[in-house]
Amino acid sequence: MRALWLVIWMLAAAPVAAQDFSALARLDTETSVAEDVRRRLEVTLFLSQSVPYRVFTLDDPARVVLDFKEVDFRGFDAAIFDQSDRVEGVRAGPLRPGWSRMILDLADPMAVQSAGMQVSESDGTAIVELVMRPTSAEDFAATAGAPDDPDWVFALADQPPPEKPEDGPLVVVVDPGHGGIDSGAEYDGIEEADVMLALALELTAALGRLEGIQPALTRNTDVFVPLRERLTLARGAGADLFISLHADALAGEQATGATVYTLTDQAQSAASQRIAERHNSVDVLAGVDLRGQGDEVAMVLQDLARIETTAASDRFASALVQAMKDTNAPMNTRPRREAGLQVLTAADFPSVLIEAGFLSNVADRERLLTPQGRAPLVAAITLAVGRWAIEEEALAPLIRQ
Predict the structure, then answer these.
(1) What values do phi and psi take at 165, rounded to 5?
(2) Which domain holds residue 111?
(3) In the sheet that 170-176 helps form, which strands lie side by side, from edge to edge?
(4) Is 276 in the same domain as 305?
């Protein structure tokens, strides 16, 4: 069944219609609230002006999402806003430049009964009112899902990236994990998203000093980028290598040091199936138009691409472990691992995920919080990229064209 969703473009009274919808609306954090009214959940947002917005639900776990173009959520306090027993948690903040998002985690399945915006003719302020009612888990699952709405697409345009010259630079896409409303792991007030952004900026600066290397970032500010879009952005940049940066936090302090992950064989097969089922032109393989082709063709092409990219991912992971030894970068006792991580599922370019350390470990935490502490890992990754690039160039004549 098509996902239940609402997209509202407010074209209200004349004084409001003249406003620029791209302007930033401010949330009144003192009056906005999520509360229980009889058997319903009512969410009321007071905004300084009208903006386009949409509402939809997601399952597993059950939650309702409100996207805006765009709302300033600075000063938002979830503990004050959430007065409902039907809501288990609320997150709100920047999604990406020009976009904002609020997510309410639902204690039980709830269906959208109504959603609307009222705009004041006198001062242009706006009130968004969302009403939700209880529903069955089956009905919730059947109607949940992000809308396929081209007016709200976050990804790049459906155009293949420009063809890269054979003697062009090697494009390394650095992906600082999390961001925006998704802060990642947190420990003692330290957020993974902030630390990884600092590491990513230092790494791209170092990579930019290597001859023949062109670094790129999936985000360069504190914004949320969905996992699938990170790969789309990398594909649009013409990625030759994708490096995702993370830092975990565990209950104890024993785990320490950096770890390098590649995708497991089982996860590769499952990823090909999922991607094929939802493939859309160049969003599966860069430069390959799959419109009009069946899932079987998409899967075969992905499997062929993975023969090369999986081997290249493994070679880079091995080069990175050796480089960490050479630069004395702190490593985990088992630095080379495999996992079914969604951010590694691209078939058309090699990719690794680096757990730079553990925020729950005092030594790792102190190291990751300063440029000097991060320097050995930056040096190791930069050294590995340089060595890997030379190795791949030497192997190029032997690889199937």
Answers:
(1) -65, 150
(2) 5-151
(3) 213-217, 170-176, 241-248, 351-358, 258-263, 331-339
(4) yes
Q: Indicate whether 122 belongs to any domain.
A: yes
302/309 Cα distance (integer angstroms): 10
> Vertex 396, ends 392 and 401: CA angle to 5°?
135
Q: 272: helix, coil or strand?
A: helix
User: What is the per-residue pLDDT for 306?
Assistant: 62
pLDDT at res. 96:
74
Tokens of 54: 């949409």
Mean pLDDT per 10-residue run, the chain (401 residues)?
Answer: 39 28 77 95 95 89 90 92 95 83 94 90 91 95 77 47 68 93 88 95 95 92 83 86 91 82 64 36 43 45 61 94 96 89 82 93 94 97 96 77 50
| Pair 358, 255: CB distance under 8 Å | yes
pTM score: 0.65
Both tokens of residue 390? 């030379």
Cis peptide before 355 (omega within 30 of 0): no
Q: Is the dihedral of CA 273, 279, 282, 283 positive or negative?
A: negative
Residues 9 and 102 in one domain: yes
Q: Judge whether 73 and 93 are in contact, CB under 8 Å.
A: yes
